Amino acid sequence: MLSYHYAFYGLRDELKTIYDAGEATAIAHEILLHITGKDKTERLLNKDKKLSQSEQLQYDAMKADLLKGKPIQYATGIAWFMGHPYMVNEHVLIPRPETEELVQLIAAEHKSRKVRILDIGTGSGCIPIALKQLLPGAEITACDISNDALRIADRNARNLGAAIDLLQLDILDEAGWPQLGRFDIIVSNPPYIPMHEKEQLDINVRDYEPGTALFVPGDDPLLFYRVIARLAKAHLHKAGAVYCELHRDYATQTKKLFEDAGYKDSLIREDLHGNLRMLKALG
After folding, report:
1. Are 135 and 144 in contact (CB under 8 A)?
2. For a 10 Å CB count at each end of the chain, is N or C smaller?
3. 3-class SS at 271?
4. Separation CA 283–CA 30 (nearest Å)
5. What three-state secondary structure class fits 283?
6. What does the pLDDT look like over 74-119, one tens digit per residue?
7. CB crowding 15-47: b at 16 or more within 10 Å, else e
8. Average pLDDT in the chain
9. Are 44 and 8 in contact (CB under 8 A)?
10. 91-282, which class in CATH?
11. What angle do CA 69, 4, 60 make, to 5 degrees?
């Protein structure tokens, strides 16, 4: 069995073949913490302590997965969002920091209101769960086409004590829209990557995250925004708002799409990296 010392450095050095040094180091620390339950300082003080047999087996399996490009969040089954751990697997996207910014924007603009919120394409449930934590008076429904994703969202909601309603729905099929009711806010981080961009993505995204949550049918990056704009016209209360995460290359086109559909005061916000990332449009 490997000692803590050799387990860390062995993993870090092998990960350097696919990650830069800083990221390889961070991943190796996270994996050893996950396996042993001991942080960097504890492992350093006990550097000669050996992994148990079960820890060694877990270490070997996780290392093999990571070296194939599997994201660490799928290797550990945990992704952090707004300071809380979310269960994730290959059926849901890994929550991104940019999505935290979208949640914070919504919460800041509606913190004094009791609102009804619909999240479209919920995946892990990170958006509605975080909004429920920040807006405890909100009534929130989250939908997804994938029952596998909804099972993950349900477990996360239960684990984090967030009372949200979950609904299986393909929003591209308008026959299902009547069951939705009306909302003050409709939010979505929909699929927006055209298939022709697939090969440009990192292997850990392209080969592991769910394609149905990443790529748009027909290579049409505006498809889901077009559908959301129509759906929201029928299901937003007066003065309701739509919030969407955007593909930075199609942000201005998406804004124009909502304006052409009759939305007013539409605006695009940048994320912390300066990318055009968030849309707000008033119905």
Report:
1. no
2. N
3. coil
4. 44
5. coil
6. 999 999 999 999 999 999 999 999 999 999 999 999 987 899 999 9
7. beebbeeeebbebbbebbebbbeeeeeebeeee
8. 95
9. no
10. alpha beta
11. 35
